[in-house]
Structure formats: C-alpha cells, structure tokens
Amino acid sequence: MHCYTTIERLAKEFDRVYPPELSARLGWWRHVLGIDSARFLRMLGMSAEQAARRKGEDFEGILEDPGWEENALLVEGSLHRLLSLFHYDWHALAARIHAPVVKTKNGMPSRVSRQNGEADRPRYTPNGDASDLLINRMADGGPQSLSALMAYLAESQGRGG
To answer: What are the structural domain ranges in the chain?
Structure first.
C-alpha cells in the first residue's frame, strides 16, 4: 500500500507545481530534467541550425507559431507518458537521464540504461547523427517513441545539456 500512497503524493505534488501555461510548462520540463535549450528545441522539431539560432528565445515567442505549438503539445504528451513510467517522480526521471552512460572498451557510448535494463543506442544513421534518428523515432510515435525519448534525453549529458 505504501507504493500507491507515494505515487499519489507525487502525482499531487506534480499537479501543484506544474504551470498552467504551455510555455511555462516547457520551461519547467527543461529545467527539472536539466536539458539544454537547443536540445529541447530539437525535440520540438527544429533543425540543429534553427535550434542553435533560437536557443536564447523564450518559449512564449516560439509558440506563437501554431506549428511549433502543436509540436510542443506532442512533446509534452510524450514527457507525461515517460514521467508516468517513473510514477510521477520527476527527480528519479532526471537522475536516470543524467546517470553515467555505459561505455564500450574503446570509450564510445553503446547503450543507455532505462528502468528495466539497457537499450541499444543506434550506431548507424543515414547522416551519421544518432540524435536525428532518435528525434524521428520520437516524432513517429508508436512503441519505440518513449525509448527514443529516453535515449535522446540521456544523450544530452554528453553534450553539455
């Protein structure tokens, strides 16, 4: 019974601290998960160049574009689903994201940890950028979207975000 009361307490705490405005909610996610602004903008569907150019802007201005707002709502929904897997414990989710990446013998990251073990990192992508592959998998939805989201967020620790 203790587990259910803890989950209920965490869900109530989440409801209490979660901002009402979409722009503030995105900022909340970025802050509590410790994700760099440019990487977060990439999750919204911006190219690497767009994200680098707009990383200093606030979400409110970015969300004036209905396309970015729609993408933001989709990302927010994915983050909610991911948080539910952690029983609304955003501290545990952030800790998992920033846990050390498992390295191969040659020092390259090959796997990321997740709650039920490890998941293979993509090794080969058409343009050589694993982040692009993960972003595409997140956008596609389906069974791989949450594991792609988790891998993308975990990847941020190695890139300063």
So the answer is: 2-159
